[in-house]
Structure formats: structure tokens, C-alpha cells
Amino acid sequence: MELELKKNTITKVYVIVDKLLTEEFSWELNVASMFQGYIDATNKTNYAVEEVKDISLIKPLFIENRINRGDIFLFTNAWTSAIPYIKHWSELYKIPVKLIGFWSRGCFINSDTEYRPLNDRVWRKSHEVANMKCLDNSLFLNESYLEQFQTEISRGRYADSLEICKFPLDYITLEFSLAKETYYKQNMIIFPWFIYNSLHEQIIYDFIRVFKKTQVIFAQEYTALERPLLINQIAKSKISFLPYTHSNIGQEIYECFLLETVPVIPDIIGLS
């Protein structure tokens, strides 16, 4: 799925982030900025991106006709209850919009213990079916998730609206070109996140017990780094430790590849 330019109009892309579902420091919080970076890098000036974390702000926009035909609503987590609301308002106020959702979590994923608990799954699957029917496009992070969704939820229906996400991350190459050329690799392994636990710490120190000359860097242990400083730290490191708990869009992995830093990630579906 690619953005299609319309002549002499501005299409708004509303990136809907559900605060009830989105974890702190999740990749979902970066989707709006990634889309904006893509639009800037490809000079698609007919598009404007706005992140929305409170859908109660959207209904007045429909009522006041500030939502235009063809505007796009991008849901970073397609499990959100915001999808039927936007669909309802679109039909109620007769303003056709396009709805797109990322299916990165859900009851349809066998390995997702949070969204697929051992108790009743019937209503959860019904919820996913309803959201799928509201969406114009359902995007999946990998082939495995798409296959599980087709088996559990779509059951051969709506095939044209289901596709694997090809997210436009190429623009990051421009941002990283200077960092890659400026710094030389050092014997460093970096943990670039804000939050880590004792297990993460133990894994890293087990690693440097074997590779004794390796320096471990907890990049944001005491204070949050601005993005250029964090990129510089990753660029100097040989290895970046990314202990994901579930599959995601892969921006941090892609960034490591561009900086020629080896990303170490868990062996979980969608990342291996």
C-alpha cells in the first residue's frame, strides 16, 4: 500500500494511538514521525500527518466538516475500539474516509499470551472480525501473522484488504548517512532503551564475561538522550541489544543495519 497523490488537495493522515493499548516507548508511538519523515523525504507535499491520542477530539471534526473525503485514519493497533467509532462517524456524517490498521497484537496470534488468554476467546475473535470489516486495509508485520489471521479471523474473506506491511523506512538512510561516516566501531554493546530489568542486565554481563574486552553501555540509564546523541552511540557500538517481547514494525532493527551495528533480538515469531 502506497500513498497516492491527489492534485491540489491536502489529505490528512490521522495516526490514532490508543493509550489503553500502547506500551510506554512502544514503536507505535513513532509511527506518526516515521510517516512524516517518509512524506518529507519523498516530497509528498499533498499529505499532512497528525497524531491523535484522544478520539473524542475526532467527532467534532466530522460534525464541523473539517474531515475531508479521502482523509486517512491509520490505527497503530487494530485491536482498538476506536475503529468502529471512526467508521460510524464516517457513515453518519456521510464523509467517506480510508481506515488502515496494523495487526501486530491479537487473539489470532498463537504466541500472544496477553491477547490470547486461556479463557473464552469467542468474543475476542468477534471483536477482531468486526474491526477487520471496518478497515479498508489490514496490515501485518510478517507472513506468519497474516496466515494466522486468515485461519482464525478472515477465513478466506476480504483477501484483497489483507497484506504484509511494507513500511516506508528508506528515508532513515538519509538521516543516518552522516553518523555512519563520522564514527568508527568500538568494542561496545549498547542497550538503547529507557527501561530494562535485571534479566536484561544479566544477559549483557554474561555476554561480556565471555568477551572481556567489550564495554557495555546503558545509553539512557540516567537521562533520556536526544535522538542524534542516541544514534551516535549506536553508530559507535558493534552490537545493540533489543529484548523485544513481541513482533513489531522493526524500525530499531533497520536502524542498526544502516549503522552496521549487529542487532541482538529474541527468537520470536516475526523477528527471527
End-to-end CA span: 24 Å
The geometry reads as globular
The strand line-up of the biggest sheet is: 2-1-3-4-5-6
The helix content, as a percent range, equals: 25-40%
Overall CATH class of the largest domain:
Alpha Beta
Q: Would you list the SSEs in sequence order as H and E?
A: EHEHEHEHEHEHEHEHEHE
Q: Uncertain spans, ≥5 residues at pLDDT below 50?
A: 1-7
Oligomerization: single chain
| Number of separate strands | 10
What percent strand?
15-25%
How does the major sheet shape up? 6 strands, parallel
Q: What is the correct CATH architecture of the largest domain?
A: 3-Layer(aba) Sandwich
Q: What is the domain tally? A: 2
Write the layout of secondary structure elements.
Blueprint lengths: L10 E6 L14 H12 L4 E6 L5 H6 L8 E4 L6 H11 L5 E6 L18 H13 L2 E4 L2 H12 L7 E3 L7 H11 L3 E6 L6 H13 L4 E4 L8 H10 E5 L9 H8 L3 E3 L8
Question: Can I get a quick summary?
Answer:
The protein is α/β, with parallel strands linked by helices and 272 residues long.
Descriptors:
272 residues; six-stranded parallel beta sheet; Rossmann fold; 9 helices; four-stranded parallel beta sheet; single chain; alpha/beta; 17% strand; globular; disordered N terminus
